[in-house]
Design a protein that fits this description.
Structural class: mainly alpha
Distance between the termini: 24 Å
Number of strands: 0
Largest sheet: none
Shape: globular
Radius of gyration: 17 Å
Protein backbone atom coordinates (compact mmCIF):
# COMPACT_ATOMS: atom_id res chain seq x y z
CA UNK A 1 0.00 0.00 0.00
CA UNK A 2 1.13 3.53 -0.73
CA UNK A 3 1.95 5.58 2.39
CA UNK A 4 -0.17 8.52 1.20
CA UNK A 5 -0.35 10.12 4.65
CA UNK A 6 3.44 10.22 4.96
CA UNK A 7 3.82 11.55 1.42
CA UNK A 8 1.25 14.27 2.09
CA UNK A 9 2.92 15.17 5.40
CA UNK A 10 6.32 15.46 3.77
CA UNK A 11 4.80 17.58 1.01
CA UNK A 12 3.35 19.98 3.59
CA UNK A 13 6.70 20.28 5.39
CA UNK A 14 8.56 20.81 2.10
CA UNK A 15 6.15 23.51 0.93
CA UNK A 16 6.27 25.24 4.32
CA UNK A 17 10.07 25.25 4.26
CA UNK A 18 10.23 26.43 0.66
CA UNK A 19 7.87 29.34 1.29
CA UNK A 20 9.16 30.32 4.73
CA UNK A 21 12.69 31.40 3.97
CA UNK A 22 15.67 31.43 1.72
CA UNK A 23 17.16 28.60 -0.26
CA UNK A 24 20.11 28.58 2.14
CA UNK A 25 17.77 27.97 5.08
CA UNK A 26 16.02 25.17 3.18
CA UNK A 27 19.36 23.55 2.33
CA UNK A 28 20.62 23.92 5.90
CA UNK A 29 17.45 22.44 7.37
CA UNK A 30 17.60 19.52 4.95
CA UNK A 31 21.27 18.97 5.79
CA UNK A 32 20.69 18.93 9.53
CA UNK A 33 17.75 16.53 9.20
CA UNK A 34 19.78 14.14 7.04
CA UNK A 35 22.71 14.30 9.43
CA UNK A 36 20.32 13.50 12.30
CA UNK A 37 19.12 10.45 10.39
CA UNK A 38 22.69 9.31 9.68
CA UNK A 39 23.68 9.84 13.33
CA UNK A 40 20.62 7.93 14.57
CA UNK A 41 21.32 4.99 12.25
CA UNK A 42 24.95 4.82 13.36
CA UNK A 43 24.02 4.98 17.04
CA UNK A 44 21.42 2.24 16.49
CA UNK A 45 24.09 0.06 14.89
CA UNK A 46 26.42 0.65 17.84
CA UNK A 47 23.65 -0.34 20.28
CA UNK A 48 22.82 -3.46 18.27
CA UNK A 49 26.46 -4.52 18.08
CA UNK A 50 26.99 -4.01 21.81
CA UNK A 51 23.77 -5.73 22.84
CA UNK A 52 24.06 -8.78 20.60
CA UNK A 53 27.44 -10.46 21.09
CA UNK A 54 26.60 -13.39 18.80
CA UNK A 55 28.01 -12.98 15.30
CA UNK A 56 25.29 -12.88 12.66
CA UNK A 57 25.26 -14.00 9.07
CA UNK A 58 25.31 -11.33 6.41
CA UNK A 59 26.76 -7.85 6.54
CA UNK A 60 29.37 -7.21 9.25
CA UNK A 61 31.20 -4.02 10.03
CA UNK A 62 33.85 -3.17 12.64
CA UNK A 63 32.52 -1.10 15.56
CA UNK A 64 34.81 1.81 14.63
CA UNK A 65 32.83 2.46 11.43
CA UNK A 66 29.51 3.44 13.08
CA UNK A 67 31.37 5.30 15.84
CA UNK A 68 33.21 7.34 13.21
CA UNK A 69 29.96 7.89 11.32
CA UNK A 70 28.09 9.14 14.39
CA UNK A 71 30.92 11.42 15.50
CA UNK A 72 31.45 12.86 12.01
CA UNK A 73 27.70 13.46 11.58
CA UNK A 74 27.63 15.35 14.89
CA UNK A 75 30.72 17.33 13.90
CA UNK A 76 29.22 18.31 10.54
CA UNK A 77 26.10 19.61 12.30
CA UNK A 78 28.21 22.40 13.78
CA UNK A 79 28.62 23.98 10.33
CA UNK A 80 24.87 24.51 9.81
CA UNK A 81 23.31 27.88 10.62
CA UNK A 82 21.36 28.31 13.84
CA UNK A 83 18.23 29.23 11.88
CA UNK A 84 18.36 25.88 10.10
CA UNK A 85 18.95 24.10 13.41
CA UNK A 86 15.88 25.79 14.91
CA UNK A 87 13.79 24.89 11.84
CA UNK A 88 14.93 21.27 12.01
CA UNK A 89 14.24 21.20 15.75
CA UNK A 90 10.68 22.38 15.19
CA UNK A 91 10.17 19.71 12.52
CA UNK A 92 11.57 17.00 14.80
CA UNK A 93 9.38 18.14 17.71
CA UNK A 94 6.29 18.13 15.49
CA UNK A 95 7.21 14.61 14.35
CA UNK A 96 7.65 13.41 17.93
CA UNK A 97 4.34 15.03 18.89
CA UNK A 98 2.48 13.36 16.03
CA UNK A 99 4.10 10.02 16.85
CA UNK A 100 3.20 10.34 20.53
CA UNK A 101 -0.38 11.32 19.66
CA UNK A 102 -0.72 8.35 17.35
CA UNK A 103 0.78 6.01 19.97
CA UNK A 104 -1.52 7.38 22.67
CA UNK A 105 -4.51 7.02 20.37
CA UNK A 106 -3.66 3.42 19.59
CA UNK A 107 -3.09 2.61 23.29
CA UNK A 108 -6.26 4.41 24.33
CA UNK A 109 -8.46 2.52 21.86
CA UNK A 110 -7.41 -0.89 23.17
Amino acid sequence: RTPYRAIFGILLVAVALAVSGTLANLAGTTSILLLLVFCTVNIALIVLKCRDRQPREGFRVPIIVPITGAVSSMALMSFVSTTAIYSAGVIVLIGFGLGAARFAGIRWRK
